[in-house]
Amino acid sequence: MAKRVVIYLDGGARGNPGPAGTGYLIFDEEGRLLAKEGRYIGFTTNNVAEYTALVQALDRARGFEAQEIAIRSDSELVVRQLNRSYKVRDKKLKPLHERVRILLYPYRKVEIEHIPRGENREADELVNQAIDEALQG
Fold first, then answer.
1. CB neighbours (10 Å) of residue 45?
2. Is the peptide bond preceding residue 106 cis, with omega within 30 degrees of 0?
3. DSSP strand pairing (68-73 vs 109-114)
4. What percent of the chain is modeled with pLDDT above 90?
5. Cα separations (Å) of 19 from 4, 96, 101, 120?
6. Among 58, 54, 27, 25, which residue's Cα sits nearest to residue 41?
7. CA distance 85 to 75
8. Which of 26, 87, 132, 134 makes the best surface tag, with the fewest CB within 10 Å?
9. Which residues on neighbouring strands pair with residue 114, listed in sequence order?
10. Residues 79-113: tens digit of each pLDDT
11. Alpha helices, DSSP H only, in 62-114?
12. Which of 116, 112, 45 lies closest to 81 in space, CA to CA?
């Protein structure tokens, strides 16, 4: 059981909309990797892929029973919407946003931070691997 988990996530679509994938890495407070996954999610938009990656990561993080969570994403839109700087207007994003809010509710402390793309390379690689594998059959 980790006291605090840190999630790095990414989602992307080639073409926007286009073939899309998600990727995330979950670390404990000591920086040890607890989980990582890349997944092809079909044909959708970048923003749907970003939110889907977060939902997938939060679903997985529940198993670590942490009391605190930190989320790191290079999606300015997702970060600003979750921090309530931007409203969620897109009908496709509203249910995903609500699911994220529900999954974050049990945590005592939640940090959501925008990071530069260069600090999110591993999650981006997971996204691209998932898309590549799906497109190659």
1. 19
2. no
3. parallel
4. 97
5. 33, 19, 26, 20
6. 54
7. 13
8. 87
9. 73
10. 999 999 999 999 999 999 999 999 999 999 999 99
11. 76-82, 94-104
12. 112
